[in-house]
Structures are given as C-alpha cells and as structure tokens.
Design brief:
Helices cover 86% and strands 0% of the residues. It is built from 3 helices and no strands.
Length: 102
C-alpha cells in the first residue's frame, strides 16, 4: 500500500494563510463545478416556458422575466467569482514568491 506521507506533509507545513487559501480554493472549485448544472437548469426552465401550452402573454412575460432575473443574478455571481479567482491567484503567486525568497 502506498504511503500518504507526502499529502500529510503538505498540511503539516501549512500556516494559517495556506489553510485559508486551500479553503477558498475548495469553495471556488465546488462553485465552479456547480455552474454548468445551474445554467442547464435555468435554460431548461426558460425553454419549458417557451414550449409550454400557456399562450397568455402576461403570464408568459412574467415567467420569462423571472427566469431572466435568475439568469442575470447567476451571471453577476460568475463574474464576481472569476474576479475573486484572479485576485486570489495573484495573491497566491505573490505569497509563494515571498515564501521562496526566505
């Protein structure tokens, strides 16, 4: 059986900033994994509404507006998470260069 000593040493030598970056990376990875299914869900709701048997214009427009408001929220959240990901990457690079200098 293979030893897990190298994985344990990663966590053994990590300080508070490393733990925080690992936690944020885990949250970002999980969020990134959920984006595609959420987009499919929103698009399915929109397409089900378009293909539905309801031909009442007022009901149709209210449902489309609700779905698009959800889609806009998701779009803003995606942009926010990408900007945070870029900032974290820059901070992580800066931190690793400082750590390797000492």
């Amino acid at each position: 059986m293979k030893s897990f000593g190298s994985i344990r040493s990663i966590f053994m030598h990590a300080d508070g900033v490393d733990w925080m970056l690992m936690a944020l990376g885990l949250i970002g990875a999980v969020g990134d994994g959920f984006i595609t299914p959420i987009i499919f869900f929103i698009c399915s709701k929109l397409l089900n509404n378009v293909g539905g048997s309801s031909f009442d214009d007022e009901t149709f427009m209210q449902t489309v507006a609700k779905v698009f408001s959800l889609f806009n929220f998701l779009f803003v959240f995606c942009l926010w998470s990408l900007s945070k990901h870029d900032k974290l990457t820059k901070e992580k690079q800066k931190y690793t260069t400082i750590k390797t200098e000492y």
